[in-house]
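Sync notes, pocket subgroup
Present: LS, DG
LS reminded everyone that the earlier model was apo-only. Rerun requested with 3,4-dihydroxybenzoic acid included. Inputs:
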Amino acid sequence: MARISASVYTSHVPAVGAALDLGKTAEPYWQPVFAGYDFSKQWLKEQKPDVIFLVYNDHANAFSLDLIPTFAIGTAAEFAVADEGWGPRPVPKVIGHPKLAGHIAQSVIQDDFDLTIVNKMDIDHGLTVPLSLMCGQPQAWPCPVIPFAVNVVQYPAPSGRRCYMLGKAIRKAILSYDEPLNVQIWGTGGMSHQLQGPRAGLINKEFDTNFLDRLIADPEGLSKMPHIDYVREAGSEGIELVMWLIARGAMNDVNGGGNKPKVLHRFYHVPASNTAVGHLILENN
Ligand code: DHB
Ligand code: FE
């Protein structure tokens, strides 16, 4: 059967993608950001996952205000890189895993979560920047990726609680897949940032640090945090952090599976564009 070996959490700052694509990673402003992923790149190479289930949000590139799915699973064989206004990023297209994605859709929908099934979708910086941070600049991404898009752009966004429970349903689906696949689940977006209005530029290190602590040690309690606390403390775009709870909800320890996960890597850095960069790797124990 398939198993979930680890979860990865990372911000998706678009300027990080631009810095990489334009060869600026060694510049003093960017060097400390990329250095925070040196361990992760080596680790991912050694882990050789068969599939990455990548929870992310689209930023009005695949979905406009015409159509706003709360949860959308990418079931296609491949996904093109979106043009976000400056041409598509020069990164590989994403190869999907239609068979596992279809199985997860079947299981999770029958488990009472309403997923939108997406057979054609371009993927934006929400998905490509986490891959770039974790993989560098390869000719092809190291394994198939199942894109799982969450609406955190247009209200109402799903609650942290709903995301956490969904993570448990996704776990159940993956563990019932009849092939011995090593699957990782990634939760992306965040950390604190606000891009609009009088509080644009808001960063809250204390909130972010506490969020990382609780995501590791008390995800159940953290999942009950209401939206208003995210918006007030982490800024209007800080709500992206609910996606991290999907990945955390899929880990062994919160599903009757024993020990707390091993914290393999933890990183936090400000500034990167308008966003605090946070990153964690948790391994099932
Ligand atoms: C920025 C951050 C985001 O999460 C995003 O989606 C777009 C821009 C920023 O830091 O500017
Ligand atoms: Fe974003």
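DG: Residues 3-260 form a domain with the Protocatechuate 4,5-dioxygenase; Chain B fold (CATH 3.40.830.10).
LS: The beta strands are 3-10, 51-56, 71-74, 78-79, 94-95, 116-118, 145-150, 182-188, 262-272, 275-283.
Action: DG to write up.
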